[in-house]
Amino acid sequence: MRRIVTVGSFLLVVACGGLTTPDLRTGVVQGRILGASTAGYVYPAGHPELKVALAADGAFRLTLPAGAQSLVVYDGTFQMDPATDAITSFGHADVVDVEVAGADVLDLGDRDAEALPVAGGVLAGVRGESGALTTNPRFRLVGVEPEVASVGASSVFFAALPPGTYQLDVAVAGFVDGTLSVAVSSGQTVAYDVEVLVDQAAEVKGCAVALSLGAATGCDGDGLACNAGDGRCYPTDPTTCSRVCNSDLDCLAGVPCVNNACTPLVDCRTYLAVAGSSCVDDDPCTAALAGGVCFTPDDHTAGFCSAACTIDRQCVGFGAGAVCTSDHCRPALP
């Protein structure tokens, strides 16, 4: 049943279900990616849960809030060599900015998948303060698909990413959550390691978590032992920073040779806790290490307390596997 009702100068169409009013709060965006796979998808940036798969002909259609939106478009052609698991193709991905009009359809038309930027990837790892083992880390690359990697692996690979900058978060029991800004380049895999600090407010701290789960030492490397009290790992020889010397070269980095004795600025335990620990400024480093600095060797690594060195053996106090690189001690990376 349909009838026309005139009220004043307004003409209303009344149907059996009542008035039909367009929803001005949302609009539709549609288009097609030519040459794409059905493994491809589109989603509004920051909301991978709203992902829609590409149809067999590469078509997509999304209903989005009105206003400015950024769409992540992926063509689904990521490929790996089945024999070696080596990546042979990242596929193509891009971020497309659109203006969604309420109660309207925005047609982006056809786009060639090959014309989109080659997608990139992020290999994300984690290392615990002082060489403490990290168990069941949870990685999250904020706002992308897939956003959260499976728990358990010490490192994960996020693929099919449009070039750009992302936030990488890592959560590990017994440690303070870590975060890092990561940059993805077209067609490249970039590696980032996030150092997580021991959470001194946790009931079971740092390396003690691994011990509680049956790990032999709770520490990553020989010559280190877990102190369950503060959750940090220390060399099994607690006097390693105090010894007879003829020059600074006979002492650990950050420990000067004074009157033929390696003499730390603080006690050995504090020295070993600070050496190689995460930092954001020089203050905690200079307080415990002679010539100590908060050193960041590259854009991929968080800052850590370091001191000048000449040879690798001066870096023993910085944890198992620490090396002298660029004239500074650098803790081992995972």
Describe this structure in words.
The chain folds into 3 domains: 103 residues, Immunoglobulin-like (Sandwich); 102 residues, Immunoglobulin-like (Sandwich), CATH 2.60.40.1120; 94 residues, no CATH class. Helices cover 6% and strands 39% of the residues. It contains 3 helices and 25 strands. A 4-stranded antiparallel beta sheet has the order 5-4-7-10, with no helix packed on it. The N and C termini lie far apart (72 Å). The relative contact order is 0.10. The N terminus is likely disordered.
Q: Order of strands side by side in the largest beta sheet? A: 5-4-7-10
Might you state the CATH topology name of the largest domain? Answer: Immunoglobulin-like
SSE series:
EEEEEEEEEEEEEEEEEHEEEEHHEEEE
Low-confidence runs (pLDDT<50, min 5 residues)?
1-15
- Termini gap: 72 Å
Under CATH at level 1, the class of the largest domain stands as Mainly Beta
The structural class is: mainly beta
- Overall 3D shape: elongated
DSSP helix count? 3
Helix percent reads under 10%
Query: Overall mean pLDDT score?
Result: 86
CATH architectural label of the largest domain: Sandwich
Give a short account of the largest sheet. 4 strands, antiparallel
